[in-house]
Each structure stands twice: as structure tokens, then as C-alpha cells.
Amino acid sequence: MKMDNYYYHFLEQMNKELAFVARELEHSIFASPRTMLTHARVFVETILLLVMKEEELPSKISLTLIERIDTLNDNGYITIEVRDALHSVRMLGNQAAHDTRKFRYSEALQSWEAVYVIVRWYVETYGPIEFIFPEYQDPAAKGQEFYDISEIEIRLGALEQLLNASVGKHDKNLESDEKRKSVAEETSDPLPPGFTTIRKLVYKKMELEIPYFLRDAFLLPQRFERSEMFLIRLGAEQQARIMSELPNNLEGLSTHVKRYKAKNEEILFEELEVFIEEEKQRREIMLDRPGELFFFFKEEYLVVTEELAKLALNEDIFSGFPSLLKQLRKDQMVTVGQLPKELVILAKYDNVGIGTIKSLFEQMKQIQTTSTTAAVN
To answer: Pfam families under this entry (predicted)?
Structure first.
């Protein structure tokens, strides 16, 4: 699933890193005005660094943004309009970096307009002669889910590292070409909200990337068929109840509980990989179809229509598991719509296994299919 196009995509032909940072700024305007304002300052400072490098002006890394503005202004490289735009971005960015007050969308939009003036000047002065710069465009307040503020910071931070490296700033976090390539791959595509890698898990020579939306995900033991008891025991030791409790390296995890060995660590790692992929698929579905209610069973899902949700959980409609139906009614779950979104949770009931849950899921699917066919005909 790809995010929509972004305004400054045309910058990619001049400087991809610059374009990608601009993309994240655009996405952050309505998600976090403070973040947008803070990083817009870094963005324009990099543009000035590129200009000073192009013009062969003395440019120490330690120069502040206001010093760069003054240098270019004093030497006649920028117009009054560009100078004022630079100061606008600078001052708003400084406030956002230090002031604890709430920042408004209007302030982020003000900075966005100033960024337009600066980028237009930069491209028209140092870009391809034949290029016609497009008209200003307000960013749309998209109806889709926004990036979380912390995720925006992660993405912008990684992109700014690449941007700094592209203009000659040393960054010890990007010393190797392999590391630089890895960061570039992670941030070049505008991933859907939540999909930015937040951390990695390793086991021996294997590696798993944990997306942001799963950073504190509950590791429901029933989702891990071969590691269910291992996770339950680890959970009792406060070791693996949620994703963030897992250590970076899973080797040695079994030492926290008795009668479990390295083989259990390996199996858990394999099942975590499946779990992460299933969760990614589920999130893509939910992002693509906001406002819908779903039931999930392993890698499958079912859209819950109003008609299906109203169905009674009784033996007249569902067959083969009367004990489960009785226990559900005892817990005041009397209609399909009251079932948990994650159906494997039902395995907590007495004498209920994965086979029973699969049967329930398949019967609901069949009812849904029959109902849809009847409606069409």
C-alpha cells in the first residue's frame, strides 16, 4: 500500500534526500505542527548549505542558520522576499523547538508557504533552466490516518541523516555504505502510517524488523501455535507480554523459564515473523477500508456487515460447537457483532481449540457469502 503523491516530488530529479524530507514535512503539517516547524528549519538550513557550497562561499558546519542567512544576504545572493521567508521559517522553528505552547495548523501552513518561496528560489536559481516551477499548493488535510508524532520524528531524523551525508556533513550513524543504503531503503518510499521500522530483533544470523505500529503490541499467546505455552511462561516472568518487552537478541530468552531450550527460541522467532507479516496485512486492510469492522483469523479476515453482526450466536445458526456458544452466552456475547475482532482469543474458553474457531470463522464466511449472493440476485 502506497501513500498518495506529494507536492515536492519534482525535487527528486535534483536531490532525492531533499525531496523526501519535504514529503515528510508535508505529511506532518496536520499531524504535528510542532514537528513540521522544527524540521522545516533544518530543511531550509540544508538548502542554504547547498547554495553556499555551490557558490564556493566559506561555510563551516558550525555556522548557525541566521549566520548563513546573513552571509547570503550581505553578498546579494537572496532577495528580500527569500530573506524574509527564511527568517519566518527560522523563528517559527526556534519557537517550536523551545516553547511548550500549543502550535496551530495556521503556523505550520505559514511555514509551508515560506518553504515554497525558498524552494522556488533555490530551484529556479540552481535547478534545470527548462524547469517550470509549479504554483503554490496547500497540503490537503487527508481523511486517512496520520502518522504518529514519534514515527514522524523517526522518519525525519533518518532522512535528515541522509541529507546531511549528501551535503558532506559527517554522521557517525551513517559511516558505512551499507548502513546508508539501509536507511535510504527504509525511508525512500512513503510508507503507510505505522510501517516505519522502530527496532529490530535478531536471533543468530536472522533479523526481524518491527514496524512502529507493533512496538507495544500485545503478544497474544494463542496467535503463536507452537510457542503458546512458551509465551505464557515468559509472560509470567514479565519477559514477553508485549513486543517491547522482547530483548533485541532472542538468544538466551529460554533461560528465564524452566524446561525450555534454544529450539523454543528459534520457533518463537519464526512465529514472530509470521505474526508481523499477518499484522502488516491486517493494518493495510484497515487503512484501506477505514470505518469497517473486521474479524481476523490467522492470515484471513472477514468484513462484518450489519446483517452478520445482528445474527444470534445459537445452535440454530451455528453447528458443531454448542459448548462454545453456551460459554459465550454466559459472558453476555449473544450476537456475532459482540465477538472479539481477534477470533483466536476465543481459545481461552474450555475445550475450545483452533479447529473450533476455524469452524466458527468458516460458517460466518459462508453465511456472509450466501447473504451477499442473495442480495445481488
So the answer is: DUF4145 (PF13643)
User: What span, in angstroms and rounded, lies between the C-alpha atoms of 101 and 25?
Assistant: 20
Measured in whole angstroms, the distance separating CA 338 from the mean position of its chain's CA atoms is 29
State how far the alpha carbon of 168 is from the alpha carbons of 44, 236, 301, in Å.
Answer: 16, 50, 49
Q: What is the pLDDT along the chain (377 residues), one digit of tens a residue?
A: 444 478 999 998 888 889 989 998 998 898 888 989 999 999 999 999 999 999 999 877 778 999 999 999 999 999 999 999 999 999 999 998 888 888 999 999 999 999 999 999 999 999 998 889 999 998 876 545 566 767 777 778 778 887 777 666 544 554 555 555 555 555 555 677 888 888 999 999 999 999 999 999 999 999 999 999 999 999 999 899 999 999 999 999 999 999 999 999 999 999 999 999 999 999 988 888 776 789 999 889 998 888 888 899 999 999 999 999 999 999 999 999 999 999 999 999 999 999 999 999 999 999 988 876 665 44
C-alpha cell recorded at residue 206: 536472522
CA dist., res. 346 & res. 344, Å (int): 5
HEC readout, 106-129: HHHHHHHHHHHHHHHHHHHHHCCC
Rounded to the nearest angstrom, the gap between the alpha carbon of residue 352 and the centroid of all alpha carbons in its chain is: 35
Rg of the chain (C-alpha set): 27
d(CA 169, CA 320): 67
Q: Quick count: other Cβ atoms within 10 Å of Cβ 139?
A: 18
Tell me which residue of 119, 157, 163 sits closest to 11, measured CA to CA.
119
Domain range list for the chain? 7-188, 210-287, 294-376
Cα 222 to Cα 232: distance, rounded to the nearest angstrom: 9
Neighbours of 147 (CB within 10 A): 25
